[in-house]
Amino acid sequence: MTTDGTAPPAGRDGTAAVRPVPEPLAGTPPEPAVELMVHGVGGTTPEKMLEDARTTRVTGDATASVYRRTEDLADRPCGDTGPVREAYIWCNLTSGNGARALWLLLLPFTIVNLAHWMRPAAPGPRRTDRLYDTLVRLTALSLTVLLAAGACAVSLDLLAWQCAASAACAEGTSWIEPFGPGHGWWAQPGRRLALAAVVPLALIALLWWLSHRTWSAYESASPPVRPRPDGGDHARLSLPGFWYGRALVARLRATHVTAALLTVAAALLTATGPYDRGGQGSTPLAVCGWLLLAATVAGGCVVAVQQARHGRTEEEPDDRPEPSVTRTLPRAAMLLLLLVVVHTGWSRPDWAATGRHPAGSVVFPVLTLVQGALVVAVALAAHRLHRQARSADRGALGGLGGACVAMLACGLGGVLTGGVAQRLADWLDPSAAPGEPGAAIAGPPVLLSWEASVIPLLLVVVLGLAVAALLHARRSKKRLAASVRDQYPDESCEPLRERSDRIASAVARASLTDHAPVLVGWISGACLVFGLTAVAGSLTGDSPSRAAADSPAVLSFTADACQALGSWLMGIGVVLLLAMGRRAYRDTASRRTIGILWDIGTFWPRAAHPFAPPCYAERAVPDLSWRMGTWVDSTGGRLIISGHSQGSVLAAAAVWQLDAATRSRIALLTHGSPLARLYGPWFPAFFGPQALDALHRDMPRWRNLWRATDPIGGPAGGGDPPVDRGPLPDPMHYGRNLQRPLPEPILGHGDYEEDPAFAQERAELFRALGHAPLAVPAQQGQAAEQRGP
Fold first, then answer.
1. DSSP per residue over 645-662, as a string?
2. CA distance 550 to 427
3. Which of 99, 472, 498, 548 gets the highest tally of CB atoms within 10 A of its CB?
4. Within 10 Å of residue 651's Cβ, how many Cβ atoms?
């Protein structure tokens, strides 16, 4: 949309026409000038960004919009009052109402999706890239299987198989008692299992609906159609199809739904199989069970093959129609599951449920080992890419950041699954620990009990790392405090110990961000070791407390304490995750803290897991690109896009989507930017030094402001002319003076606009734009003429 609310002229293909920007003629009025501001993760209002109570929405909807002050609706040149300011408000894409806190329960899916984008930036053929992506997608698929298996452990095992078969448990739970032993038609285990399959089926349907709903709202935003010059090495984020993942998410959703349905079918078949094939059931039921099991295994093989074939197409927007096999898979899996439910519910009068569900002791250990093998394979592929990449583009943890993050996703998925199962088992049988002598039920699968027992050990590792970080910050504070006063040579006040300590402490705390890779590496390594330990312990068939019953008293007490404490910690972790998410969407301070990692996670498209929270950038980046491109096309004016924190990442991604002619009228001003400090080490293929150098070549009028007290923002790199200005003094004044009689606050990550350097750099960028030559290559002008007037 143009500033007057009308659509830009359309080309022959129905897209907005791309016109070369006309050269200003002598004697013509000065060009209009606009500063387009993009806020960060904390969220804000247009009134606060524009510093005016009267604002008007220029374009957009209730989810994301561009606002101006009401008195600035008409374009004007940059004068004494500065440029016309616009505010792009995108916070509703990630926060919105408090119900979105439920997305935090899908945090393992978000984390594994991050691993897809963390590969090192290796040049040359992309065979290893494709192998890395395939392995991450298979790891993501295993998390979906884990989710479905966990739902089956809760509904099929604990409720239908164990509690409903135990008179003591069924009588203590009123809504299970009608399905308990001695109640006629429902006394058969198969019929209870068939009914309980509704729970995982409802969960799968909910995830499918959420993925489909957000897919329609986020991944469907069309990117601007802008010509790119042929040849050359283009940054990955400049590809026209990068922010358009509609088709890929649809294909991934189909295969993950199919895998989840097949998991439920396998859980039902492993319950009926031992009875039917043990000579107690009828031969026709055994034959049907074998056929259904073969169909389930075949369906799993097809899903694995389809998952390996699902790659991203970024050279052009991916509008390919869904393959027929992708549309057929969920329907076929649903039909197969219905047949399995009928087969499970078929009458077996002499069948009785005892102990745990037969599949629990096999599925979870095998799934854990498969996930461990996939993570190791991801690490090997990443190591190969690491060796091929330039030293500056190898990424965090020696290129193994993606493998470590995938390990964390698997570990967190196991903790959430085990936490729900452990809490439900304790609720069903509060009189004794499940599985112990005198207990009404056997309890959850043994592996989940072992996983609960290693949680306190993992917590000790995390606390040790936290203590080490605090000690490092304390030492840094003492070292920096002596030089704080020297950073203000123009002030005449005497050094104040308390003031210097406070500033040095802020700098020391901010520097801890640079040690995050060490923290992630240690935790992921501990998850791998403790996970293998839990698998080895589960092979004994007993819970940790029972396995240590004949050991010395100290060891037995330790095992009992770890199992009980771990069980509570797993359950509390689920509740705490929801509470933190709910608070983050209600309280601004909590939102700033939690939202940093959350907004980094949901910035990237869903390339590995379709049930992850939606990618807000697939709406925000096209919004910004369309706004900048159409405004420059319609006015020929000068524009600065000013991004703070995560807004600077959106601004850089949007600039990359523009053609050279439009970029010649645009400058980039970033402040508090995590581009090089956070995104560079973790996502080197997209924001590493080579990619940021390419951005500087594409955007020579780019300036970046940063502070040493900022835990998020940092320098963006070199360049000629240089990009960075900083570190800016924070606080701006050390002591009291005539202009500032009260103490100045330490701003840290916020309020960069209050620093005089911000206004100076903005004015300098507008002056540079006024003297910049227009980049209108001949091939772009010809392309524009072919598209339309």
1. THHHHHHHHHHHTS-HHH
2. 28
3. 548
4. 31
SS3 665: coil
Question: In the chain, where are the structural domains located?
Answer: 33-97+615-787, 189-222+241-350, 457-601
In order of 18, 22, 622, the CA distances from 626 in angstroms are 11, 19, 6
In this predicted structure, what is the pLDDT of residue 118? Answer: 92
Provide the pLDDT confidence category of residue 392 given band limits of 50, 70 and 90. low
Res 99 pLDDT > 70: no
Query: Among residues 666, 653, 757, which one has the least CA distance to residue 705?
Result: 757
Query: Tokens 């308990």 belong to which residue?
Result: 180
Evaluate whether 122 touches 392 at the Cβ level (below 8 Å).
no
Q: Residue 414: name the closest of 441, 449, 379 by CA.
A: 449
| Global pTM exceeds 0.85 | yes
- From residue 241, give the alpha-carbon distance in Å to each of 121, 349, 648: 19, 59, 21
Integer Cα distance of 523 and 459 in angstroms: 9
Q: Worst-scoring range by mean pLDDT, 366-380, 575-589, 647-661, 740-754?
A: 575-589
pLDDT, tens digit (0-9, with 9 covering 90-100), for 171-211: 777 778 777 776 667 788 889 999 999 999 999 998 888 77
CA distance 472 to 455: 26
- Most confidently predicted of 123-127, 467-471, 487-491, 783-787: 467-471
CA gap 469, 475 in Å, rounded: 10
**The total number of residues written for the chain in this structure:** 789
Phi, psi of 82 (to 5 degrees): 90, 180
Token pair for 371: 């996930």
pLDDT at 440: 77
Structure tokens at 253: 């959703």
Cα(162)–Cα(174) distance, rounded to whole angstroms?
A: 15
